[in-house]
Design a protein that fits this description.
2 copies of one chain form a homodimer. Chain A has about 350 residues and is of the alpha/beta class. Chain A contains 11 helices and 20 strands. Chain A folds into 2 domains: about 190 residues, Medium-chain alcohol dehydrogenases, catalytic domain (Quinone Oxidoreductase, Chain A, domain 1); about 130 residues, NAD(P)-binding Rossmann-like Domain (Rossmann fold, 3-Layer(aba) Sandwich), CATH 3.40.50. In chain A, strands 3, 4, 5, 10, 11, 19 and 20 form a 7-stranded mixed sheet that branches. A 6-stranded parallel sheet of chain A has the order 14-13-12-15-16-18, covered by helices on one side. In chain A, strands 1-2 form a two-stranded antiparallel sheet. In chain A, a hairpin with an 8-residue loop joins strand 1 and strand 2. At the A-B interface, strand 17, helix 9 and strand 18 of A face strand 17, helix 9 and strand 18 of B.
Chain lengths: ~350, ~350
Amino acid sequence: MIETKAYAAYTPTTPLAPFDFERREVGPHDVQVEILYCGVCHSDLHQSRDEWGGSIYPMVPGHEIVGKVVKAGEHVKKFKAGDLAGVGVMVDSCRVCDHCRQSLEQYCVEGMTGTYNTMERDGKTVAQGGYSTQIVVDERYVLSISPKLDLKAVAPLLCAGITTYSPLRYVNVTKGTRVAVAGLGGLGHMAVKFAVSFGAEVTMLSTSPSKEADAKKLGAHKFVLTSDKEQLKKYEGYFDVIINTVAANHSYETYLNLLALNGKMVVVGIPPKASEVPAGKLLDNRRSIIGSMIGGMKETQEMLDYCAEHNIVSDIEVIKMQDINEAYGRMLKNDVKYRFVIDLASLK
Amino acid sequence: MIETKAYAAYTPTTPLAPFDFERREVGPHDVQVEILYCGVCHSDLHQSRDEWGGSIYPMVPGHEIVGKVVKAGEHVKKFKAGDLAGVGVMVDSCRVCDHCRQSLEQYCVEGMTGTYNTMERDGKTVAQGGYSTQIVVDERYVLSISPKLDLKAVAPLLCAGITTYSPLRYVNVTKGTRVAVAGLGGLGHMAVKFAVSFGAEVTMLSTSPSKEADAKKLGAHKFVLTSDKEQLKKYEGYFDVIINTVAANHSYETYLNLLALNGKMVVVGIPPKASEVPAGKLLDNRRSIIGSMIGGMKETQEMLDYCAEHNIVSDIEVIKMQDINEAYGRMLKNDVKYRFVIDLASLK
């Protein structure tokens, strides 16, 4: 077994604290990755505090994992010791259903195996995430990472990156597409970067005037203050695509109004309460609302390769593992541009 | 001016009663149609009772109009006296916006001109509908009807028909597509007929067991009783497309659960209250909700030609104009299979 140092949530209400555990031995199809950096996703906080229910403790959060391969099983083809590698939101799936066969493993009919806070498919091992020094994963669920990119800034691509890249591709965002991004956080800032890179005309939608300069620094071309009725009126029926990253409760009506003919709002955030949809706003302009969840393994690799080619990474703030509880506090105040990334050297 | 006999709503609370008025003279691009039959749409009842607000009285409802051309203006190309013709939900639009140019006049940027309960584009004439003996419409908004079909059963195609045909085409329903239809009324029964005709596997979704035999008579292959949790469980993630014709208040969650990977629910009914959408149900299986409103002039003609070729008409019950108030009462109890059609001979 592989000794692993980590930080874990022990209960919903206590701070994360040191935790030692063992990873499984490297099997013939497994890759052992020494974790160098791990992004801090808002869902880490939700799950460590049991805000979605059913949390398994002690829980090592983290599903934006990058590091260096230290060992590859005898049948592993894609990796060798020394390669850079990543692990995202899932570490397994049934592999045989129609969706897995299409490499849409995130929609596995049996349910994908999340990277933490779930049981692995052996039914007895608790999956533990990336706030740790080592991880062992079947190579099918491990991504190759180019040495061209700044590794620590690659980590958030594994969740925030693919979650926004995949829907932009799904709705065919391309040169000239009018794309709006609602919400400027970990997901929103990646949506802006990708949409700009695909040649779209990109507009940030926000209730906060201070986000205008931030969004434009990321490449956004326009800014609409959604608390200003006149600005909303001006952009009625304007956008082909809205990437809605807002995870707070909200009605979809304000955004739907802004969609052009055949316009599509892609929802990637899950507000605690169901959102209201007035059907008339969908019938107007034949609008759609589409849900999208991360991306499959093939598309995640494609996204990472695209990022290497176009020099796209996340904007991050590096923290030590010991600072995680403070970082959670700052995340709750949106006091991060735009993702915390843990430097696991702090645990060694 | 053209003397026209009609039935009109004079107030929101009184029964429809006889009304005489004049249609405009036939202009160079106009077609005068002697109305032979007019379908009774649920929206006629809503508007005559001012349930959507802003109703204009006296109001002659009716937007499922078929009849015979009695006069064609000098520049009219598509019609001559004696031809069968139809008029649907609109009689005009701006004609120059991007949507009109695509023959998606129902999404006209300035707003289409409805067939009744609105002002015509001259700003002074009240548009009056098909519960009348004559109508004069620019040929751009008049449809050709094949003599092959039973004319009285064609009338509902102008609204119920195109409202279901258009979205089935938009989401590419074809041989083998798993289509479910929610709600078996005027719209639902046409959705079943079209989907069956396109080669889809068609399932009726209903809370009422009595609808099973009815739906199968229309060609549906399967029936799911949506009040039965076990049946719902069995069809979770099953359908590629759901045509949701339900106009009563409801949460979309039950239907979303039934959609397969990339499955699409098309909403064609407008419940009085906004419907609730739990985002998680959209993220699962990358599901969509799409709104669709009637169809453009080009597609409406295509639909009518398709119906002539495939011998598709509505299932109707013919009434006299004098029976309209009783018919409204029966519509409110869903006591019609599936559309009332007024025989305007009763007014002459």
